[in-house]
Amino acid sequence: MSTAFAEIVVPSVVEDSPETRMRAAKEASRETARLTSDGKVRALHAIADALTAGSADIIAANARDLARGAAEGIGDALLDRLRLDEKRIAALADAVREVAALPDPVGRVVGGHRMPNGVALEQVRVPFGVVGAIYEARPNVTVDIAALALRSGNAVVLRGGSAARESNTVLVRVMRDALASAGVSSEAIQTVDDFGRAGATAMMHGRGLIDVLVPRGSASLIETVVTESTVPVIETGAGVVHIVLDESAPLDWSRDIVVNAKVQRPSVCNAVETVLVLRAAAQRVVPEVAAALLAQGVTIHGDEEIRRLVPAAVATTDEDWATEHMSLDLSMRVVGDLDEALAHIRRYSTGHTESIISTDALAIDRFLAEVDSAVVMANASTRFTDGGEFGFGAEVGISTQKLHARGPMGLAELTSTKWLARGAGQTRA
Amino acid sequence: MSTAFAEIVVPSVVEDSPETRMRAAKEASRETARLTSDGKVRALHAIADALTAGSADIIAANARDLARGAAEGIGDALLDRLRLDEKRIAALADAVREVAALPDPVGRVVGGHRMPNGVALEQVRVPFGVVGAIYEARPNVTVDIAALALRSGNAVVLRGGSAARESNTVLVRVMRDALASAGVSSEAIQTVDDFGRAGATAMMHGRGLIDVLVPRGSASLIETVVTESTVPVIETGAGVVHIVLDESAPLDWSRDIVVNAKVQRPSVCNAVETVLVLRAAAQRVVPEVAAALLAQGVTIHGDEEIRRLVPAAVATTDEDWATEHMSLDLSMRVVGDLDEALAHIRRYSTGHTESIISTDALAIDRFLAEVDSAVVMANASTRFTDGGEFGFGAEVGISTQKLHARGPMGLAELTSTKWLARGAGQTRA
């Protein structure tokens, strides 16, 4: 508030903190919520262009992260996930343009009717407001999440992993400058990386400032966010995924689907971790499925019955059943019947994806009805649980909770709804 | 697992605890999830009949609660909310029959398509599993929530207020016996009332056992549950509700709607708490609106400008703006323009319902677009924010959060979805 004495009053300095940044995002979210779809597309194209134009800066910052990572002895696989080069930055910019091309979920009328007294009710999609993301390692998540949040009319507060902190700092600066150049408040993209642990803590307790928090990363990161947050969280990702080979399982489907689900990309959440084989099918299918897996370099962790059929298998431990290996390791177990398979899944599944290979209609129906997971399949690879494969065009993550969103999340899952009621003086009788 | 020696092994005694009850509910939820709609209707009718048949027991238990409440000096209003008599029990049984008559949300196909490779995708409504409810005072919530949870295929774990503990104990016993008589596991309805505070704590931390937790009661109860829970919560109810009288506000609509919104039922969350009047309308509308309110026994808390127009008004305090009075108290304030009204609402609204009285299309559009609440109205009483009024047939509560459900919640909001994928050997390329 300005007064006549404004110039001679020492202005109160607001200290920069996670809270002031979240507050700035909240304030900016009023603007992003009202952007037209065209306005959002322009902002995203500005970001995509700025990423390409800023490649040199981004790569220089990334090189510092890589050097620090190498000095700290993080593994080659992690270093590779951390690395940004011209080609990856171009792919990142293209991904932003793809998000810009998606239909805008905001403003869609999803329901409504006229009340008996004439009041017109309408339920419309609106942005959440401020989306928070806490994530690890890969710096491209910084850009992905910001683009998805903006496309759906939200402001975003980011907290990336410390391994990528120099890269993330530059990526955020480039995106903020691009927003400003497109006439949108740069405050719509915030990072709290520079506050370390305190930044994440402030987000998890940012009631009224963060409308929804999406953790992306390891099971322990997700567990921490879910347990500690007082703001609503969408739990994503952890996948201890099962395939059941039923008595009637065709051998070729069993082999092709298990190999595809394990080998095609072992480091992702929809890769299979455990194969349960009905005893009546074990002798018929296990040797050939195992041979195909071993030929692809898979280490099979088998129970005693599996090891009798597959001499190359190593012994399973109790821990194996609950482990998301993210590697070419696969647990296999023989079960007496479908009941035992379902009980195993109830105990160890993270509720992500399970698939049965079977030609028995009753077994398939029972499996689809009784397995309590986000995606339940028959005769298809678990690798299909994916926003792109489901036709959403982009993926915010895969929700393993039941509230709000379940399974692959698209742009609509980054929105809420509100009810509009238009009357002409109506009162309640 | 039974063995040949089962009979001579001393069975391990599982100690009764909140956890064992939640676990029993989880187990029973597999059965309730698979009940046909007809099966659920039969179970609910059995409950309704049992409530009527058990009236004498229920009233006797309730009398003990009332006597204890009176001895502890709880107020007449609370005692009245606690009271159950033949008529109220009959109304409760009727409410259960009404819930039974609602369409079953479970099994509804809400989306789906065929993937390019032929895999058939289908998104279907499924029960959450176990719904938890933590609530206060009125024992009828015990029956309402149990009926709504069961109708949507869920098991339920209840934690009622200590003031109603004897009534709740009998109500739960009657409902559990009725379930058993209808051939449904009585474990589908659980209470943890007898564990006191530990029961509520166990529910709030019941990850994997409670799928969603619904708090109903005071703002402080809701705040505790939201802050402490590690399971997903749907935040309901608290309503600091605003009405804005625009410059163009018709006098009769202003008077009728404000009086209706405050007086018709002051103790509920959709009753108005604050009226903001644009300065340009104040002299024209405030005296008559205030006179109508005063005639109904309302105490007006006014700022200085209101008090100049309404000598009978008492002075507002800063606290008033943030208070849900639940009584015939109303705060009134004069604001310079719509911006100032919107800023006031941003600061003090709980995101429940706000309404503008106006004939100015631009002002109405701006209000509907910019107010970030579950229900935003023009020219209608805020009392319409109600599951019954919205045509849902029953109301689980009114969500003031943005995740999963926003505004009045019906049966569908007690369900989640899952994806079913049916293939013929497809693998991912």
TrEMBL record, chains A, B:
The keyword Oxidoreductase applies. It catalyses: L-glutamate 5-semialdehyde + phosphate + NADP(+) = L-glutamyl 5-phosphate + NADPH + H(+). Belongs to the gamma-glutamyl phosphate reductase family. It holds the Pfam family Aldedh. It is an enzyme of class 1 (oxidoreductase). Its EC number is 1.2.1.41. Signal peptide: none annotated. It is found in: Cytoplasm. Gene3D superfamilies: Aldehyde Dehydrogenase, Chain A, domain 1, Aldehyde Dehydrogenase, Chain A, domain 2. Keywords: Amino-acid biosynthesis, Cytoplasm, NADP, Oxidoreductase, Proline biosynthesis. InterPro entries: Ald_DH/histidinol_DH, Ald_DH_C, Ald_DH_N, Aldehyde_DH_dom, G-glutamylP_reductase_CS, Glu-5-SA_DH, GPR_dom. PANTHER family: DELTA-1-PYRROLINE-5-CARBOXYLATE SYNTHASE, GLUTAMATE SEMIALDEHYDE DEHYDROGENASE. Catalyzes the NADPH-dependent reduction of L-glutamate 5-phosphate into L-glutamate 5-semialdehyde and phosphate. The product spontaneously undergoes cyclization to form 1-pyrroline-5-carboxylate. Residues 19-293 form the Aldehyde dehydrogenase domain. Pathway: Amino-acid biosynthesis; L-proline biosynthesis; L-glutamate 5-semialdehyde from L-glutamate: step 2/2. Coiled coil: none annotated. The lineage of its organism: Bacteria, Bacillati, Actinomycetota, Actinomycetes, Micrococcales. Its main location: cytoplasm. This is Gamma-glutamyl phosphate reductase.
